[in-house]
Structure of Alpha-amylase:
Amino acid sequence: MKKSKFLYPFLFSLFALGACSSDDDSGEPDQGKEPVNPPPVEAQPINLADYDNGTGVMMQAFYWDVEPRHEWWNVISEKIEGWANAGVNRIWLPPASKGQSGGYSMGYDPSDYYDLGEYLQHETTETRFGSREELDNLIAAAHSNEIEVIADIVLNHNSGGGKEWNPYVQDSTYTLFDEAHGNASGMFNRTWEDFHPNSTSEYDSGYFLGQDLDHDVQHVQDWLWLNENSVAKYYKNNVGFDGWRFDFVKGFAPWVVKDWMESVGGFGVAELWDGNPNVLENYIEKTGISVFDFSTFYKLDEALDRYNDLTYLTQDMLWKTHPEKAVTFTANHDTEKDSNEDNFISKENKLMAYAYILTHPGYPTIFYSDYENPAFQSQLKQLMLINNSIANGEVEVLFADNDEYIMKRARTASNPGLILYLNLNGNIKFKEVDTDWNMAPLMDYSGNIDYTPTTDENGNVSLRAPANGYAIYSIMK
């Protein structure tokens, strides 16, 4: 990962000013008397780029129904260098192969795994995202900027094959995949025997009748991950992918992912859509790979939107038990669909959600549409810098109630740590907390509040958070 060079110039002006004399009105009896504004300090902010904690962030480099069609690989290529400078060390691409919907397909209806924009089928040569050459150029650009490229792999179901009679369905199914029927590459040709139900298995997931791949069939295993020209090894060795995002893993057994990873390696993360951290932990233990942390996503949704209660952020989440395997996020292509009303963090609370995942343990993911939102990008860049630098050390929740949440990442021998202060209240809030810093001037490195207090000899200090916002404090020098 490139070391981030980003540090807001406006942060250097904060400590030259006195703390603002606000009309704070918390209305909270436990807040105590509003502290006297501290005098201006002459200290300077630390350079966050000096504290590379080796984490990085992943960019989900697409949204649902990206536009312009056939140009997406070129669009992403132009953004690679900027993302690298902002601290991105992996990009997650949509499924790159030809789908049944041809030039309109987002890739989740895979037909020919080996057609990456090279064969005229389903009424197009290029995929929705572009040509094979443009994909190669994108991957080369990412690698030259020290960014890994993650392939979205759909292993549960196939679409777009020819019609054939399946005696175990007692009907015709679209399960004939050959050069003339949805598989122009001629690689991994399939018939009904490769799908559930068949002559050896009656299991069917119930989601894709007759088109649900049977991973117990040796032919399927060989072509998906075992053979030297399997999908997995072709994508890694010929195309240059560095890892895998496994789609809809509820549709097949964990051993499939485990075998795939043992065969080809790389970074792996599963889409196991379940908010129960125990379910996510169990999948990690069975497969050894990371999972998207839906438990944290739902707690953020509950805390910020559904119930307006930040104590939900103290409940069980995957990052607390498996921080190295929890891929945290606040949005993705599914949650941000126009039709989605049940799985969505509102725009007014989105940055607070990002402040949470980018200061807590876990491997955070940035959603393309959020990063490209002009109202969000500058703050997201700063949060990414904070994540890659001072979001380090043990986590301790210092305070939590309905509208306040204060969390500390402990100082270490080589890192100063930080304190996150979330505030759902419509007024500025303040709270006295115990820090790891004695007689130290502090500032908000998010740039959201003009306030530069100094801790006392015991490390105590009164911190502030802006109305309906967040602050992230650390030391100055």
Notes: The CA atoms of residues 243 and 265 lie 8 Å apart.
